[in-house]
Amino acid sequence: METKFKQIKIEISNLIKVVKDLEEITDNDSFAREYFENEISLLKNAIKSLEDKLNNSIIAYCENLNIQDGRYDLIKVIDGDTIRLVPPNTLLNNNYMKDMDVRLYGYDAPEKKDEFFVEYKTLLSKLFELIASNTVALILERQSPITEHANYTKYSFHRMMGNVFIDFNEKLFYVNSFLAMFPHTTYYNNKKFKEEKKIEYYIGGLKKKRLKYSNNYFFDQDCKTFIGKLSEVINEIEGFADLSEIGYPSCLLFFPKEILKIADESPNQAFDMILSSIKDNDCAFSNVKLNTQKEKCVDLLDKRLISPFDIVLIYAFEWKERRFGLGDENYLKLSHRS
Predict the structure, then answer these.
(1) How far apart are CA 153 and CA 271, in angstroms?
(2) Which residues 6+ apart lie within 8 Å of 58 measured at CB?
(3) Three-point CA angle 138, 143, 149, nearest 5°
(4) Judgement on whether residues 258 and 196 belong to the same structural domain of the protein
(5) Which residue among 64, 91, 108 closes a domain?
(6) What are the two backbone dihedrals, phi and then psi, of residue 236, each rounded to the nearest 5 degrees?
(7) What would the pLDDT profile of 3-14 be if each residue is shown by its tens digit?
(8) DSSP assigned state of 265
(9) Neighbouring residues of 230: CB distance < 8 A, sequence distance ≥ 6
(10) Which helix (H) or strand (E) holds 173?
(11) pTM value surpassing 0.85
(12) CATH number at residue 110
């Protein structure tokens, strides 16, 4: 089905080119312009109708795919914030999808034209190489107000938005949060938080609390060992050596596996589980408390206007701001090599 959509899109593009060619031909000929003007207008209307029907078909197709949160096999890393996965067997075997691209929710890695593009793609690739299995856990983001980015929307049949995790013993390692803590990534979701600039109003924050950056962030020896191995990988990437010894806060990286079962069905329950995990894990964020606006968060979750993972990503970026002494608008300034 995906191939058919692409073919239709190509044919519509060809029709648009035909119309442009006709307009160019008739531009300098008043007789021809008058003669073909009505037909060109009809063609434009027909093309617009085709585009609308194609978009509606894609929306219906995507909504019927019913791709569930769960575990999927990794095919490849596309760049620093996009991976390619094997789709569910029902879709693969029926030739509906040969693969599915997943855009990691909540952060933006450097693009091809930017410095550190290769480094972030390498980092994400090596992160997956650390696990024995090629399987990742995926929790999709389905909230339409926050899945719009540039020219991509959640209705793209080629790419979806999701939270990606790696199974690690009895926990899930949250890949999105880890990459969000790096100095060259930028924050683009949640739009509601971003545009209204009311993150602290809704969620609270660290306020003036002092953060420590030592490895005592790691409440669990296995987690510490995992991050230790990852630090070795980071150290091997050109330009990243200074980032390998940083004590990344484990309470923003490791979460209970149960969250995979409830994130979509009960965002509020997932939200509470995340808060409990942050509180229970012994690291710098263990004292973080929601202010009196928790009910506002619950309301936004009920309306699917925010994701339960927004709090993790917001704290990850707040940690980064304090760790590197940067405001959100200045993160990319670190991308210039000395």
Answers:
(1) 24
(2) 5, 155, 156, 157
(3) 85
(4) yes
(5) 64
(6) -80, -15
(7) 677 788 888 888
(8) T
(9) 127, 130
(10) strand 171-174
(11) no
(12) 2.40.50.90
Q: Which residues contact 42 (CB under 8 A, 6 or more apart)?
A: none
What pLDDT was estimated at residue 148? Answer: 38
Other CB atoms within 10 A of residue 335 CB? 16
Of 64, 91, 117, which closes a domain? 64
Pair (164, 135) in one structural domain: yes
Q: Which range marks the domain in which residue 257 is found?
A: 66-335
Number of domains in the chain: 2
Q: How confident is the model at residue 59 (pLDDT cuts 50, 70, 90)?
A: low
Residue 126, class by beta-carbon neighbours within 10 Å (0-12 exposed, 13-18 middle, 19+ buried)?
A: middle
Tell me whether strands 70-79 and 135-140 are parallel, antiparallel or unpaired.
antiparallel
Residues 6+ apart with CB under 8 A from 135: 71, 72, 73, 74, 167
pLDDT digits (tens, 9 = 90+) for 270-326: 888 888 887 776 555 555 554 445 677 777 777 777 788 887 887 788 778 777 765
45 and 70 co-located in one domain: no
162 shares a domain with 105: yes
Q: Contact at 8 Å (CB) between 332 and 195?
A: no
Residues 85 and 36 in one domain: no
User: Which pair of structure tokens corresponds to residue 55?
Assistant: 């978009």
Q: Are residues 119 and 60 in the same domain?
A: no
Residue-averaged pLDDT of the chain: 72
One domain for residues 110 and 13: no
Do both 108 and 24 map to the same domain? no
Residue 331 in this model has a pLDDT that exceeds 50: no
> Apex CA 262: angle with CA 259 and CA 267, to 5°?
100
Strand, coil or helix: 225: helix
pLDDT the model gives residue 96? 62
